[in-house]
Amino acid sequence: MRVEIISDADRWNRFVEASPAGNIPQTFEWGELRDTLGGEVLRLGAVEDGELRGALLAIVGHAPLLRRPYLYVPRGPVVDDPAGPTLAALVARAEAEGRRRHAFMLKVEPSVPDGDAAWLAALRRLGFRRNRFATHPRRSWVLDIRPSEAELLAGMKEKWRYNIRLAERKGVVVRAAAAPDDVDTFYRLYQETAARDGFFIHPQRHYADILRLYGARDAAVLLLAEYEGTPIAGLIVVRCGPVATYMFGASSNQHRNRMPNHLLQWNAIRWAKARGCATYDFRAIAEVLDPAEDLYSLYTYKQGFGGSSILALETHDKPLNIPVYWAYLRSLALKRALDRRHHERELRQRAAPAPAAKERSAASTTAP
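Request: output the structure for the sequence above.
Response:
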């Protein structure tokens, strides 16, 4: 078995999409997004008898405070049998590529279930250690979309079915984007959503590139919801083999009572079914299903469509420079603590009564 750089997109994608461990961030196109994801990309393939046996797409990132490079394998590597020689060969080559670039670690996040004994044993044997701080959210909400549309609707919460029909009755129309300026429209909505909900978004070209690259093989779609010709919400779905994943969603501050997002998700599910997908992945929800956790509101929304949650294996790191790696862990722990404190402060602010409500409360307790 030898490990080589793979430049054939079709060959790479055929293997990744056929593997149970395949995932969108390990498809060939993901590496073409390097301008917005960080920089150099390596596509390493383990080849035996002319056939791909394993794939590892690594992004060469840089730790912000340490200003040192590292290799990150998002939702990979893609290997069917971690106990065999394939994973070891891929890791050895990735480690060599990392050392050539003076990287301080190799980080992997395989797209396999939490607690997978074979993967845990293999990673431990290859010198990896668990990292409790995940880069890619570990828990997702997924729906088996092989049943009929009637059965899928019946499996939703009653309020979700009602909202889908309500959107249609209130004049919301969903269409697949086709015009060149549809990405501009989506991005304006996405900026509005990010400002409202306080999350980071990439430059517009990132989403345009995803639609261009994956759309070239009918593996992505931008759906827009409109009311009286005005776009009020949108989402992007990308598929990898039998799994379609809801990647990004945006909505205007206007007309939210028309429930466009419920109708958008239903149309996205139908788009995935029409392309032979078996699973619709709503993507990230809270890792711990507790109302105090970040992303919990996403769980309450997504679970209404039916389905169940899945938890991926923990992040694993292979340190290549021990002193720098430990400095990285300390800085990461500090950042996560600050993020947690900020989230808790936001929760307290949301729970606090409005000033007028406080005045009314005070008046009611002091009046004779």
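The two ends are 87 Å apart (CA to CA).
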